[in-house]
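User:
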Amino acid sequence: MVDTPNASENSKPIWRERELWIVLLLAVALYAPRLTTLTVRGEESRRAIIAREMIDRGDWIVPRTQGEVRLSRPPLQNWLIAGFAVVFGEMNAASIRLPGLISTILTVGLIYWYSRRRLDRTASLVAAVAYASVLQVLEQGRTGETEPIFTFLVAASLLLWHGCWMESRHRTAWLLGGLFGGLAMLAKGLQAPLYFFGSIWAYLVWTRQWRALIQPAHALGMAAFAAVVGLWQAAFVAEMGLANGWMIYFWNVQNRFHDPRIITIVEHLATFPIIIVVACLAPWSWMLLGYADRALRQSLGAKRDVAIFMTISILVCFPSVWLPPAARPRYFMPLFPCFAVLIGIVTESLLQRFDQQRTPLWTRFVRGCTVLMIGAAIVVPMLSLTLSKTGFLPPTGEATAFALAAACTAVLMRTWGDIITATNIRRVSLTVAAFLGVCYVGPVITSQAQRSGDLPSTTAALRERLPPNAHLQSFGHIHHVFLYYFGRPVDLLPKAISDTQLADDVDYFLINGEGWERPELPFEWDEIAIVSIDRNKRPVPKETVVIGRRVRNPSLPLLGTLDLDTTERR
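Assistant: Predicted structure:
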């Protein structure tokens, strides 16, 4: 029986629907475990050291690293990280990643809420579960990167706007959309107004509701957006000037076009859509093939407006990440909630048309996921046994436990079969999500942890070796992951290096390096350590930080060379 929404059902508070709590608990179960297992990596440390400098300086307006303004993006994420660090009493992996984790959970709940405006409980559950378990979100949803936060804020601006718009609450729609759109701009910058206003304007024009653009409610939304951004922007410009106020939005944008070679541009244009569909949205992207069926499109009914809004939002926003050759697939993650809703629409349409029957689209999805589970149950233990000496795969015991779990889920999938019923759809969807979540929380994170370098221990040994009162300075900006783990202030010196230009107080210094090579410097110095800052262990690292002591001052203690990587260093 199809649980089609009706007036009495929709009049109930959504918090009383068990499906909402199921998807929220699923999100917690998928993303909270092993939150701090991996070392801080990628851009996480950059966000963290900006937040730490905000706390240390008491300046919450200007993002800085090593005392110099950082024009990468506005500071909303840094504020959130700093807030958790203040609550916890220290800057750690939990304070860095909790904003992203909470944002992912809220996004899952938001997708369910929005889907219930037009879809039944089963389809709404599938939409929320699909977002929670696509591969790109599984990778990014627990991290301290900007994407989880930005995704929630963009999704909130679009889904709250359209959800209220469908219910004729136009003032509320524009107010909420403008507020969350402004917060999204404070999180990442210029993508936010394009994603919010661009999508909505295109939708209103396409659906011939363009008169809404000249109504006072529209001005209310624009004013709400401007107020949220303007409160910070005015303070930033007053402190740093108009030029920096402009560049904080465009500095990252121009970097996306740093490689103008034709081969780079063509390769990106050709492969980017494939990566999004085949990898980032897998395995749920298969369900989007339902829109190739004309009969399904013609049977949408009241869901057609939702499908149109989701599709327009995706199409309007896609060029912003498709055209820049240096854009990464995760930059399009803010539109993944729209894909999730489209998947929910397909699910409800299939249930309405093929209840108690089979259809090729659902059958192939179920069987494909089952094959994936069986393959994982076979391959992971075999690789663990074959490559156990590398230390880059889960131990045999963990691999065996995972294989048993994967085999059990495959059996359940075959037991429930591929006949379309509301119960089977729920069971299959939750099982697929649970399997993918276990894959990531188990073998994937274990493998990543075993490959990771031991920078926390390395920097701890370095801190103990250096004098507590050593004045540390660097030639140019030191890599942010080293600064995060080193945890001591490092003043910034000019990039130009010569003995005559060095101030008298330059004793201990840091400089970025490559490999284990000792750099040639135009003054006498002792090498204290060369520290690998690569994410993963390598015999010869790509990036290093060199710590040295200037020989000029004979009163400084002779520390000698601290070999922190004796097993890897030549």
